[in-house]
Every structure is written in structure tokens, then in C-alpha cells.
From TrEMBL:
UniProt-listed CDD domains: Ribosomal_L25_TL5_CTC (cd00495)
Domain Large ribosomal subunit protein bL25 beta: 100-174
Pfam families named in the record: Ribosomal_L25p, Ribosomal_TL5_C
Segments forming domain Large ribosomal subunit protein bL25 L25: 6-92
Keyword Hydrolase: no
Subunit record text: Part of the 50S ribosomal subunit; part of the 5S rRNA/L5/L18/L25 subcomplex. Contacts the 5S rRNA. Binds to the 5S rRNA independently of L5 and L18.
Keywords carried by this UniProt record: Ribonucleoprotein, Ribosomal protein, RNA-binding, rRNA-binding
Region of interest called Disordered, as start-end residue ranges on this chain: 190-238
PANTHER family named in the record: RIBOSOMAL PROTEIN L25/GLN-TRNA SYNTHETASE, ANTI-CODON-BINDING DOMAIN-CONTAINING PROTEIN, RIBOSOMAL PROTEIN L25_GLN-TRNA SYNTHETASE, ANTI-CODON-BINDING DOMAIN-CONTAINING PROTEIN
Name used for this protein in its record: Large ribosomal subunit protein bL25
Length: 238
């Protein structure tokens, strides 16, 4: 697990105005707490912090350097701007090498399921306890060849060595369903139409109706009323 080093600065001003000024100079307001120490208000370099999360994941181990002293920390909470998605504020938890900590780890699906099978992921993360310096970025779940009914629970996951599962072992992580047939889809559509009062015509009745009805005569030539012979005689006499 990579260790990301961030040079922090102490904050002595608080409030929305101070936070905006901090962000304008490319830093993020943050607090550091844990192990019985007083809460420390500080700021982090925005670009370096974003890179740590991007490359190391949400459980990236951070080395916070403040006033020449180093402390290991994990990101416990991040506030983001809902539109810009930039980091607005960060909560950091002090950790020590060799101690156990509980974190949420993302689940990554790999492999292709069997034909006519639909995977239905129920959990995006699972909770584990592990050494603070050996936290996994993610847990891979291989679904290669899985077919309907071959579900995967939290207890089926392969955890990193030294990790303990906190999530209920019986919790469903991924369920596998059979793809619906054309007949099943048609029946479901018919049921939905019936619920909203749409009546379907039987195919036989529709075909019978298509062959009945009034016969429309072909349009007649609407000329002057004179026959062709009369017209030719008039031309000769002229």
C-alpha cells in the first residue's frame, strides 16, 4: 500500500469566509483527530490530496507533515462541491503502524457471466478490519462463468491476508438471475397494460376486421361529359 506525503499547515481562522479563502489558494480545510489528542485544524494541498485519493483509493494511507512532525492518517470523511466535485473539507483519523482499523472497501467485479445470466450487485462495499498500513484499495470478485442461482455472499470473498470481515458473512454481494424469455417479457407487458386499462385485440379478430368493411369504388373520369367519338366529330367539322 502506497504512503502519500502531504505538507499540512495549521489553521487559526474558521468559518465559511476563512474556508473560501483557504480553497482559493489551492488548499483544503481539514481536521485531524484520534488517539485521544486534541482536534487539530489544518489545511492540505488540494492537488496532492486529490491525487492521493485518485491513485490510492478512499483508504489511502497519508503521512501528514505538520510543523516538522509526521503523523499517519486515513481519510474518514470528505465533503465535495455538488457541482464542481472539488473537495471542500476533509476529516482525517490518526492511525499507528500495526494497529487494526475498520474501513469500507470497494468491490470490483471481474470476468464474464454465463450466457443468458444477469448479475445483480447488491453491495458496492464491504466492511473489514485490517492493519492500518495494509488496507486494500479494493476487493475483486471473479464472476467468470457464473449462472443463475450461483450467488456470492460476503463470506465468499477472498480477503487480504490478516483482514477480518465485519460485514455479515451471509449478506448477498452479487445475485445471478436468468435472462427472461420472449414469452415472459410478452406476458409481463400484457399484465402491465391490463393494470392501466389497455385492452388488446386478439390477433385472429384483428385479421378478420382487416378483411371487412365498405368497398370504395374506383374514381370515374370527371370530364366534360362528351364521348371520345363526339369530340373527334366536332374536330372534323371544325
Amino acid at each position: 500500500m502506497a504512503d502519500y506525503r502531504l505538507d499540512a499547515e495549521t489553521r487559526s481562522e474558521f468559518g465559511k469566509g476563512s474556508a473560501r479563502r483557504t480553497r482559493r489558494v489551492g488548499r483544503i480545510p481539514a481536521v485531524l483527530y484520534g488517539h485521544g489528542q486534541d482536534v487539530v485544524h489544518l489545511s492540505l494541498p488540494a492537488r496532492e490530496f486529490a491525487a492521493a485519493l485518485r491513485n490510492g483509493g478512499s483508504n489511502a494511507l497519508l503521512t501528514i507533515v505538520l510543523d516538522g512532525k509526521e503523523q499517519l492518517a486515513l481519510t474518514k470523511a470528505v465533503q465535495r462541491d455538488p457541482l464542481k466535485r472539488t473537495h471542500e473539507h476533509v476529516d482525517l483519523l490518526v492511525v499507528r503502524r500495526g494497529e487494526k482499523t475498520t474501513v469500507e472497501v470497494p468491490i470490483i467485479i471481474v470476468g464474464e457471466v454465463a450466457p443468458d445470466t444477469i448479475p445483480n450487485q447488491q453491495l458496492n462495499t464491504v466492511s473489514i478490519e485490517a492493519d492500518a498500513t495494509k488496507l486494500p484499495d479494493s476487493i475483486e470478485v471473479d464472476v467468470e462463468g457464473r449462472s443463475a442461482g450461483q450467488n456470492i455472499t460476503a463470506g465468499d470473498l477472498v480477503l487480504p491476508k490478516g483482514s477480518t470481515l465485519i460485514t455479515d458473512a451471509e449478506a448477498l454481494v452479487i445475485g445471478f438471475l436468468g435472462a427472461p424469455t420472449a414469452e415472459a417479457l410478452e406476458a409481463e407487458l400484457a399484465e402491465a397494460e391490463a393494470e392501466v386499462g389497455i385492452e388488446r385485440e386478439e390477433s385472429g379478430d384483428a385479421e378478420a376486421d382487416a378483411g371487412t368493411g365498405d368497398v370504395v369504388p374506383e374514381p370515374q373520369d370527371q370530364g366534360s361529359g362528351e364521348s371520345m367519338d363526339s369530340a373527334e366529330k366536332s374536330a372534323d367539322n371544325g
